[in-house]
Amino acid sequence: MFVDDRWPVYQEYLRYIWGAPFDRFHKEGLDVDLDGDVDSYNTREIVVFRACLIGYEPCIKMSMELFGQLRRNCSGTDQLLSGIDCNTIPLYLRQHVYSAAIAHGTQEDFDFLLEKYTKEHYLLERDRIFHGMCGTDSRENSAKMWLYLVENPARENFFTRAVACSKKLTRKTLMMDFFVKRPSLLAEVRTKLGNKLNALLLLAHRQIYTREQCDQFDKMVEPLGEYGRSAGQLRYQTLARIEWREAVAAHIAGNASEALAEMKKLQF
Predict the structure, then answer these.
(1) How many other C-beta atoms are found inside a 10 Å radius of the C-beta of residue 244?
(2) d(CA 199, CA 193)
(3) Cβ(7)–Cβ(1) under 8 Å?
(4) CA-CA distance, 102 to 105, in Å (whole number)?
């Protein structure tokens, strides 16, 4: 729905759905101790993730404030984001705070996070930081983070990284553009990383939302021969997703609009 013209209607509906629980949790305190309550822990994480993902303003505001404090506290060259001496953001919130801050922040915010990623030792915090960088909608920044991985693949799980970025709502084909603008890179990555390239091509297809982009992808992978043709099989899943959206988007938006009208009647 995000790439559909009727997204604003559905987005407003989602803000009602996710905004209310976010406001309640925020009022209670998002930094409360949840170690003994797994259900509450998971519920809060889902709510924060969804609320920030759809651009719910209070969630974005909270994330920007926490990230600003993080930048001030962890500005030292040798300070790691895994260090509790400077990073006081609750563990379950970190990747979502990072992501929202990158999506709505400045170039300096992204550069800060990328630098911390290159220095971080702890794998779980590296996962959180990379998830945060996936919040970017900048082709240049997206290229920076993926080039770093391609050049430093030893500690990286490319599938995990691709899954993290697949959760980003975007109207840009960031991964396909990454290769299209660097024609020789695709073959180099195939030679250097082997089948790890599969993860990047899966992400490229996940970001496709038109038939023309499917054709562009097929043209991009042609130089890879048989491997490229096998990757081209992804188009059938993508075309099915496009056809599904075309078939049901109007119904989803219409139902959301009716639901919004009813929910607004219940407000006092």
Answers:
(1) 10
(2) 11
(3) yes
(4) 5
Is the Cβ–Cβ distance between 238 and 205 less than 8 Å? yes
Q: Other C-beta atoms within 10 Å of 87: how many?
A: 21
Structure token digits, residue 42: 């998971």
Which one has a higher pLDDT value, 120 or 247? 120
Give the dihedral sign, CA 59/60/63/69. Answer: negative
Tokens, residue 141: 């920044």
In the DSSP assignment, the letter for residue 1 is: -
pLDDT above 50 for 46: yes
Listed in sequence order, the DSSP H helices in the chain are 7-28, 38-53, 57-73, 91-104, 107-119, 123-133, 139-151, 158-166, 174-180, 185-193, 197-206, 211-221, 226-231, 234-265
Q: Dihedral of CA 2/60/125/172: which sign?
A: positive
Rounded Cα distance, 137 and 168, in Å: 9
Question: Among positive and negative, which fits the CA dihedral 197, 203, 208, 211?
Answer: positive
CA–CA separation, 159 vs 166, rounded Å? 10
Residue 248, pLDDT above cutoff 90: no
Residue 190: name the closest of 140, 231, 233 by CA. 231
Question: Whole-angstrom Cα distance, residue 257 to residue 10?
Answer: 7
Give this prediction's pTM. Answer: 0.91
Among 35, 56, 52, smallest CA distance to 97 is for: 52
Length of the chain measured in residues: 268
Contacts of 218 (CB under 8 A, 6+ apart): 232, 235
> Taking a C-beta distance cutoff of 8 angstroms, is the pair 72, 105 a contact?
no
Give me the half-sphere count of Cα atoms (radius 13 Å) on the Cβ side of residue 253: 15
Q: How confident is the model at residue 202 (pLDDT cuts 50, 70, 90)?
A: very high
